[in-house]
Input
Amino acid sequence: MIHFQLAAGYQQAAPGGVGQGNLFRIHAAASLLTAVFILIKGNSPAFVAAALVMLSAFAAAILSRYVPLPDIGPIPSMYEPVWFTEKVVATVVEGIAGVLSVAGYLQLRKDAGRLRSSRSGSWRNSGAGSSR
Output
């Protein structure tokens, strides 16, 4: 996990505060938890949680590159107008994971709809109430 690796260097800017390093650690932990949630449950809430974690991190990476946002309460300014290998890899992976999480959620909904329609269709076609 790239965020765990980079966290210590980013925390130096705010050693006693929230700091970007701690935000990296929180995100990495949330990513691991949502991955375990998907593996254990594999349900819609798990995919929604993963999509929120991944797409919020993707958005933060893009914003941190192009928009000089100021400090927001205890959250430091994370403006970093450069791309480097680890940042590119993390951003691409976050984007792909976010899209796959949304796709997983949509697939579960599609499968649930198909299951509902097949159950109601099988009841109608089962001969129940038939005059034969």
Q: What stands out?
A: Residues 69 and 77 are 6 Å apart (CA to CA). The helical segments are 2-11, 19-40, 44-66, 85-124.
